[in-house]
Amino acid sequence: MGLAPQKTILCVIGTRPEAIKMAPLVKAFQTAPQTRCRVLLTGQHRELVDEVLTFFEIEPHIDLDVMRLNLPIERLAAHLVGVILSALRQERPDMVLAQGDTTSVAATSLASFLADLPFGHVEAGLRTRDLFAPFPEEANRVVASHLGAIHFAPTASARENLRLEGISPGRIFVTGNTVIDALLEATRRDVPIGVKLDPRRRLVLVTAHRRDSFGEPLERICRAIHDLHTRFPDVEFLWPVHPNPSVRPVVERLMEPLPRVRLCRPLPYGPFVSAMNRACLILTDSGGVQEEGPALGKPILVLRNESERPEAIEAGVARLVGQDPARIVAESSRLLDDREAYRSMARGMSPYGDGQAARRIASIVVRYLGARRPTRMHCPRPWSQRGQEPKHLATTLKRGQKPKQMR
Asked: 3-class DSSP state for residue 405?
């Protein structure tokens, strides 16, 4: 009896967070039986992605380099669909995978649909239930969900979000989040931060780069850091500043005069993980940091008014504070002043996985491709048919069944 034919998996990466979260999956497919992994880089982020791929020793096979075009978001989306579709028609992979909620991900899901190729959505099911918060991420992930063939939800609540939108439960798998896989690898390496910090002072790490923080919200965050800087002379602040022109000039103008605020360029992934480990408190509007910080035992104050990652908030290891300076100062002061309050949030628990998500996803994809016949049944069907699984898939992946290693 001959070997089963090799299956080609195309992993699409656009931004730094996608590179971090897809890297463990690329590594898993490189060692999975009978799979050939190809990496397509859209270039939506350039230097930030290259650094992450170098850290994980991943070489892209296709580089679309869209960042050089400097397109507004609507033209970027249209351009990405076209160039990704051309690449898919040339590569003809057995499955396309992308992670998260960026313009690259939405474009990949649509291009896969147009190419009649199954699309697998990694980190599926995150929702705020407001299409404009965050913008355009919420719309991107909704689009990806409804064009996807198979969905890898990081948590049970993400799976429930998909189910409530009519996604067939038999095509949703709770795997944990690959960000924890990457985090554990980076923590083991213990890379130096590369910024001179005072070891006698407590460190507060700050990041703010999302579109909904631009303008007045970002200035309000800066005012809060100014107040905390005055109130806590034993605290030092590290702020890796995003290069976006809506971020860098504002932060530099308002923060550079403060002697204990260390501004630096975005840290490479390894040093950034070390900075999270060194910090006693993290203030952030980043989705990934909301997942990483709790796993490192760091209290997270989320500089947003809503979050698509409610699990950490429900567990009490993260808290929404928005961009109101008074609230940011009050919640930060409570944690910096009150040991019991701090201890209640710094519990070193993660609701987002155990570091085995990539292995689970790879196993599910291999089984899915082994079961799927060459038909168009992988495409989403009319709403009236949702919940009825294709017979050829249901025989192998029964409704709600987990892969062997997850039982």
From this structure: helix
Contact 399, 185 (CB under 8 A): no
Q: Measured between alpha carbons, how far is 25 from 35 in angstroms, rounded to an integer? A: 12
* Residues in CB range of 205: below 8 A, 6 or more apart: 237, 238, 239, 275, 276, 278, 279, 281, 282, 283, 284
Cβ neighbour number for residue 96 with a 10 Å cutoff: 29
Closest to 135 measured CA to CA, from 185, 73, 194? 73
- 137 φ/ψ angles, rounded to the nearest 5 degrees: -60, -40
Active-site annotation, residues: 101, 123, 137, 209, 211, 242
Instruction: Give the Cα separation of 299 and 294 in Å (integer).
Output: 7
pLDDT in tens, 158-206: 999 999 999 999 999 999 999 999 999 999 999 999 999 999 999 999 9
Q: Domains in the chain, start-ordered, CATH in brackets?
A: 7-177+354-406 (3.40.50.2000), 196-345 (3.40.50.2000)
